């Protein structure tokens, strides 16, 4: 995408981008960290369990070369002897292997976490392409791996040479010692040399881990256009969302207009606001707002009300109070009960006056009792 549009990947990867990469198995990994942790765990395990392992191996070797004639010619005796050898060495060797396996599992979790992606384990034919393989070998990633390999070779070679030169006298004296003593001393020397060389690899791991994190972030960087496209896919196209919102408003307005004929009265501001109220005397509860609107919507409400002979009453303070305090389909708040009751009483009296005659009712909208907390200018 960046190559096609000519845009540079300057934006940090989004959460969705990182999650998609994780599902594909693309997570930061440091082979050097895994190697160092496995070697250090092995060295520590040998430091504490080396003597026991050597004793077990010596016991196995001793018993393996002291077989009786009966054991040699008895197949079942040989099977029991073999199982006995496994029993001798299984615990210490099993603990050693368990420690190294745990270290190998813990290392990836430190920087990228465990990732059991089925997509990553799936067969990908493009990985068999030799041209792409050569590009990876001679590309920036391959050159970085080559640099690390040369760095490890030089570092380990220099440290090994320095260590061996430092213990040359101890190595030379091993030939003058008894075999058991010489073997013990050689084992300790070997262990300390192993620990020292392993510790030297920590330097490479400290360099490689930040590099792998930086490289992983660099590979997942996005262009500005990719960020915009992802936002559209995640949050939806703003134009489509706007169109859907307009359609929802239109449908809501249509339903609202259909409910106006059932209203008992429409109160107005008189030009800016209009609110249609309905009171069902057959059920408990307060009057409800069946429609409300401002400006053009208020004009449509008045037109529908006139067409359906719904009384329209100019009551600016009450209209503004109901408009701002009550949503469509909700009952009016208790603070407006008295004012709305007076309006409905006036409407019912006016309806009776038009049918039966008599004294014409009168109502002054400005005198309606509206609490201060509901007043709007």
UniProtKB/TrEMBL annotation:
Entry keyword annotation includes Cell membrane = yes
Keywords attached to this Swiss-Prot or TrEMBL record, sorted alphabetically, are: Bacterial flagellum biogenesis, Bacterial flagellum protein export, Cell membrane, Cell projection, Cilium, Flagellum, Membrane, Protein transport, Transmembrane, Transmembrane helix, Transport
Task: Specify the superkingdom.
Answer: Bacteria
Under InterPro entries, the record lists: FlhB, T3SS_substrate_exporter, T3SS_substrate_exporter_C
Give the family this protein belongs to, as stated in its UniProt record.
Belongs to the type III secretion exporter family.
Q: What does this protein do?
A: Required for formation of the rod structure in the basal body of the flagellar apparatus. Together with FliI and FliH, may constitute the export apparatus of flagellin.
Under PANTHER family, the record lists: FLAGELLAR BIOSYNTHETIC PROTEIN FLHB
Tell me the protein's name.
Flagellar biosynthetic protein FlhB
